Structure formats: C-alpha cells, structure tokens
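User: Here's a structure from my thesis project, written as structure tokens. My advisor, Dr. K., wants to see whether a designed sequence matches the one we expressed. Can you design one independently, without my sequence as a hint?
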C-alpha cells in the first residue's frame, strides 16, 4: 500500500470517527430531551392533581355554610390562607391553599416541590392581583424539582 492510499484510509477513518461522534451526541441530546419531557409531564400531572383538589372546595369559608354569601362576607385579601386549626389535606375552602408548600414523590420522576399562591383577581384583568374582594380567585401552582431545568407554572381561576 502506497503513501497516498494510506493517507486516504486515514482520512476516511477520521471522517468516520467524526460521523460516529456526531451521531452519539445527537442520540445523547435526544435522550436528555426525552427525559426532560417526561419530568415536565409528571410535574404537570402532580400540579393538576393539586389544582383539582383545590377546585373541588367551596369558594370561600363564608360559602361553606351559605352558598349565597355576600361579597362583603368573603375573606379579606390579607386574610387568605388556612386557619391555624386547618391542616393539609383537610382544607375546607379554596383559599386555604394560599402559601401551601408540599412535597410529592413519584415513582419515576422523583420528588416534586409544589408551592401555591391564592389571590383575588378582577375577571376583566385576570393577570393582575386585586387588593379588594372579588368574585374570582386565582390559584398559582409552581412545581419544581432537581430534575427539571425550569419550574412548571400552572394557573387556575375559580369564580363564585
């Protein structure tokens, strides 16, 4: 085998090596994206479960016993949250989830940290917090994990 042929063989080996490395890199990236997608789906499911639980509760402590409670009897924005006697998951109304932080373990995606905020909003501008009682409350749930690149944020609105 001559020198020129040897150089062609070495060049072909280098090109084959570069191709193999690129395929390996693409496969690794694809696997990482697939795992991240699985974590996002699990985080969303865990967050939705908490939202469904909160959505099943009465709108306010005033509406627990009186479904026609007037707006003036609703919990003030500064008073949102659970009473000292209330313990998760035995909440009796929607705004008890305000400032709730809970950890949820899953078999495949590890442990998720869920944190909740509840506030009043004006239905005309649902992205802005209201400083007065309205007939609409917003629940914001943030789901975080060491395995997630960025937290998953979920929002739910409950009207009375």
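Assistant: Designed independently from the structure alone:
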């Amino acid at each position: 085998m001559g020198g020129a042929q040897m150089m062609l063989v070495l060049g072909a080996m280098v090109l084959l090596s570069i191709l193999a490395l690129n395929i390996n890199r693409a496969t690794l990236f694809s696997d990482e994206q697939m795992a991240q997608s699985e974590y996002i789906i699990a985080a969303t499911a865990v967050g939705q479960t908490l939202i469904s639980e909160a959505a099943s509760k009465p709108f306010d402590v005033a509406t627990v016993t009186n479904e026609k409670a007037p707006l003036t009897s609703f919990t003030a924005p500064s008073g949102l949250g659970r009473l000292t006697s209330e313990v998760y998951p035995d909440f009796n109304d929607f705004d008890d989830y305000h400032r709730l932080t809970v950890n949820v373990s899953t078999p495949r995606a590890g442990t998720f940290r869920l944190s909740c905020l509840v506030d009043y909003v004006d239905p005309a501008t649902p992205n802005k917090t209201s400083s007065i009682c309205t007939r609409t409350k917003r629940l914001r749930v943030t789901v975080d994990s060491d395995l997630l690149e960025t937290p998953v944020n979920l929002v739910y609105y409950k009207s009375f």
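When you compare it with your expressed construct, this may help: Residues 3-159 form one domain.
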